[in-house]
Description:
The chain is α+β, with helices and mostly antiparallel strands and 432 residues long. The protein contains 16 helices and 16 strands. An eight-stranded mixed beta sheet has the order 1-5-6-11-10-9-7-8, sandwiched between helices. Strands 13-12-14-15-16 form a five-stranded mixed beta sheet, with helices on both faces. It catalyses: tRNA(His) + L-histidine + ATP = L-histidyl-tRNA(His) + AMP + diphosphate + H(+).
Amino acid sequence: MAEQLKAELKAVKGMNDILPPDSARWEWFEDKVRALMARYGYLNLRTPIVEPTTLFVRGLGEVTDIVEKEMYSFEDAMNGDKLTLRPENTAGVVRAVAEHSLLYDGGKRIYYMGPMFRHEKPQRGRYRQFHQVGAEALGFAGPDVDAELILMCRALWQDLGLTDVRLELNSLGQPDERRAHRDALIAYFEQHRDQLDADAQRRLHSNPLRILDTKNPAMQALVEAAPRLMDFLGEASLAHFDAVRAVLDANGLAYRINPRLVRGMDYYNLTVFEWVTDRLGSQGTVCGGGRYDYLIEQVGGKAAPAVGWALGVERVLELLKELGAAPAAPVPDAYAVVPDRESLGVVMRTLEALRAAGVSVLMHGGGKDGQGSMKSQFKRADASGARYALVFGTDELAQGMVAVKPLRDATATQTLRPLADVSAWAAQLLDA
Length: 432
């Protein structure tokens, strides 16, 4: 027992701590997302991390990889309920919308941010606890909203300074069209059953559309020659797809039609899309989504159309880092150098006044026996990245002053500023 208590405790594999200064990049990214969503009129919705297991079985599809292999599911010890850590959040958003009758007065534009969980092998940009940002437009049937969401993605990439991502587009049509295509796929793959790997053979009759998404190089030629869903689409489905494309064309957004793009969940119909990059290896999809007009009814709500997307935060930040576009960690405007503890009252009163005026100030933390030598404090001030050191020396305090010493401009001179009127000079620390 003693040895167990001494054993080093670490985070669960694939569930990572986000430490400073990396956490500052996450905050920067989240601020960009919130500003974008406000411009497009999307409101934040927050759902529980734990949902009923049935929600994902019914919503995602019983034979999807997520439900079959990747969910963290357990039985509630208190009442025996079968629960699951959410592997994605579209189903949870739809559950919340249906449960609270949010569409009673018309469509809703919603966004969310938060952690998701999938039990899979951790690899670059893909973890067991990962984070998503998603946007969902519920109650809107028109192709204009499909296009709006895609254009919103482009606006986010521009806001982030993110390049080297491209759009791939497809249409999955409607359920009857997919059923006809499914029958054709089964017949085709039955004729070439000896070329199917074990995973494809398992899916042949349960979910043949997912065979098209195989990453097995040995099956690529076979998949390329398979019947294409686009050839089974009716007039209405084609018209919807053409209308989405027309809006994207009018806005100068380039894309590639990818007939093999099917996405990983069964709930999609009509438009599906992905934003992909070649810079992250096999984890090249940074954002994906599409229309899911039947999901709300599947989870027990009143039938209503919907469309949305989700992006992987870790992948986007990894791509920003790869491209050298990730922002630097923020630094304080000033660093307070405090020679002795006796002056802490007036020092901290001054710092609070500066902070109230919008100046970020880091104060040197003192030990129980003092504040540390002036040399060590100036060393910490320089390492902090602050533009100024605020020196609360004995002589300065005796005059009711603080010395403001520039740290990044060798030609600038140290000045004295009055403690009694901080607001008169605080803005000067921000203007430089």
